[in-house]
Each structure stands twice: as structure tokens, then as C-alpha cells.
Amino acid sequence: MTRLAQSDRFQEANAAARRTTPLQRDPHAAQARRRCGGLGGQQGQTRAAGNEHHAGLIELGQEMRAGYIDFIPTSVLDGYKLLIETYEKVANLPKVKEWYTLQHDAPKLKLTYMPHPGRGEYIRLAVFIGGVEFEDERISREELANHIPSLPFDQLPVLEVDGEVIAQSLVILRYAGTLSSLYPATDAVVAYRIDELFAILDDMSNFPLWGASFREKDTEKQLAMRAELASGMMTKTLGFPESRIIKNKGPYAAGPTLTVADFAIYGVLLGFKKGTFGIPTTIADSYTNMQRVFEQVKEHPKVIEWDTTHNQ
């Protein structure tokens, strides 16, 4: 028998394919394999083995169809009906299709914001939890003046992505979510739920009276403005995300899984709890569903790790 030679090109492609096999790299598929393996007995072993065989099949099918194997035509599988059916079934799984919509070459990121949590902390957490490397640049108010010329809207935070500067905190948070699998690439319903919560939280920070209170120099007048906000529009508006969380049937803000919506709510409530001049620190305490979301984020192991290593 003559053994088929494999070129260096195939060996490199084969190694790359093994590193990026969708079912191996996709966290949901990995969880499924762990669940199968955890069933115990013959049933669990059989199902776990089946998952690995499917992963191997789609890898082999991709290599053959791409022409990576020397002397073997790309149509070699065409006559094997069951193999083709299985390959197509695996290739069309939602999580496999989602894998190919995502960017897998990690961009170079630099987040610039103040040292305090504010509108930067939920972005830091979303990126960190996803295991995405980034530079966490924290500048003082005095240093901000030197950065103004490079800021698209004269505001922080900004995220530099491979040299391109992205502005607006919730836009950045959404982008961070796509990198961290915390913003869905294929589930339009969950995406709209997240965007809806983003919009109402953003509305709250854009009240005309809120902006005027920041510009007011007289302390007594500023306190009066904040008191009016706290007893009126701010309290009313907090009820809107509370009701949507109930509608989304949790336990998280947008449904059954953790998303960037949870981090946005965490950031708002964290600001209240740490103290905002003229606003009671307990203003959101009666909104039990938002408080549940806050506590779930706060108690997340990676959030605890981040706080321990970066916010002491």
C-alpha cells in the first residue's frame, strides 16, 4: 500500500482546524459534553462519545471539502449519504453557526476612564469575565484635559480597538458583550431585551434636570434639583426596568442567562449605593428584581476576583 503524503500546508491547516473546531471551542458545546459525561453509566459515556465523534466529523468534513488533504478530491464524501446528513446536521446547529459569525482574532483593546466605577466599571467587568485581554487605563480629572482632543465627544469612557476609538458607554458595553459572548449574535429576542434595558437606563441619565443639576454651581439649588429628581422622574423610571425584568422571567435581566444588561443594571445601582450627591443611596432598594440582578453580578466569582485585584 502507498501511504498518501501530506504537505506542510495540510499539517498547518490541520493543526489550525484542531485549535478552532467549533464544538471544541464553543463553551455551550463544552458544557453539553460535560453534562453528558456527568450522567454516569453507559448512557453518559455513549452520549459524550457521540458529541466528540460529531466534532471530529465536522472537522474532517471541513478539511476534505476545503482541499487540505493532498490527493483526495473535495467531493470524496459526496457518495456517503449518512455522513453528509450528519455533517449538515452538525454544521447547522445554532451554536456552530453562531461560532462562525464571531470574530476569533482577538483585537487589541484599551479602555480609558476615571479611577472610580461610574460608566467604566461595567465595561471592565464584561471584558474581564469573557477572558478578553485589555489595557485598563485610568486617568485623573487633571489628566482628562490632555485627552480631550482625542475623544470623539469630549467624554469618557472610550475604547480603543486596534487603533480605532469607540465612544459612548453603552455602545462600548454592547461591543464588549459580543467579544465576551454576553451579547447574543443570533438571538434577536434577547438582543432586543438588552437594547430595551440599555435605552431606558440611558434615558434616566439624560433627564434635562439631571444635566442642569450638574451645571448648577449653587449647592442648595443643586440639592433641590436632585431631591426633585429622586422623588419624581428617577423613582418612576427605575420602575420601568424593574417591570421588564419581571416580564423577561429571569433570573437575569434579559432572561435565563447572564448578559451585558445585567452589568448595565449593576453599574447604575452600584453608583447609587456608593453615593451620588443629593440622591439617597437607598433609592433603588425597593426594586427587588433589580436588586437580585445586582447581587448576582456582585457575587459572580470573576467579579469578586476583579474587585479583589483591581479595586482595593
UniProtKB/TrEMBL annotation:
<feature type="domain" description="GST C-terminal">
    <location>
        <begin position="187"/>
        <end position="312"/>
    </location>
</feature>
<dbReference type="InterPro" id="IPR036282">
    <property type="entry name" value="Glutathione-S-Trfase_C_sf"/>
</dbReference>
<protein>
    <recommendedName>
        <fullName>Glutathione S-transferase</fullName>
    </recommendedName>
</protein>
<dbReference type="Pfam" id="PF02798">
    <property type="entry name" value="GST_N"/>
</dbReference>
<dbReference type="InterPro" id="IPR004045">
    <property type="entry name" value="Glutathione_S-Trfase_N"/>
</dbReference>
<dbReference type="Pfam" id="PF14497">
    <property type="entry name" value="GST_C_3"/>
</dbReference>
<feature type="domain" description="GST N-terminal">
    <location>
        <begin position="107"/>
        <end position="184"/>
    </location>
</feature>
<dbReference type="InterPro" id="IPR040079">
    <property type="entry name" value="Glutathione_S-Trfase"/>
</dbReference>
<dbReference type="InterPro" id="IPR004046">
    <property type="entry name" value="GST_C"/>
</dbReference>
<feature type="region of interest" description="Disordered">
    <location>
        <begin position="1"/>
        <end position="50"/>
    </location>
</feature>
<dbReference type="InterPro" id="IPR010987">
    <property type="entry name" value="Glutathione-S-Trfase_C-like"/>
</dbReference>
<dbReference type="GO" id="GO:0006749">
    <property type="term" value="P:glutathione metabolic process"/>
</dbReference>
<dbReference type="InterPro" id="IPR036249">
    <property type="entry name" value="Thioredoxin-like_sf"/>
</dbReference>
<dbReference type="GO" id="GO:0004364">
    <property type="term" value="F:glutathione transferase activity"/>
</dbReference>
<dbReference type="InterPro" id="IPR050213">
    <property type="entry name" value="GST_superfamily"/>
</dbReference>
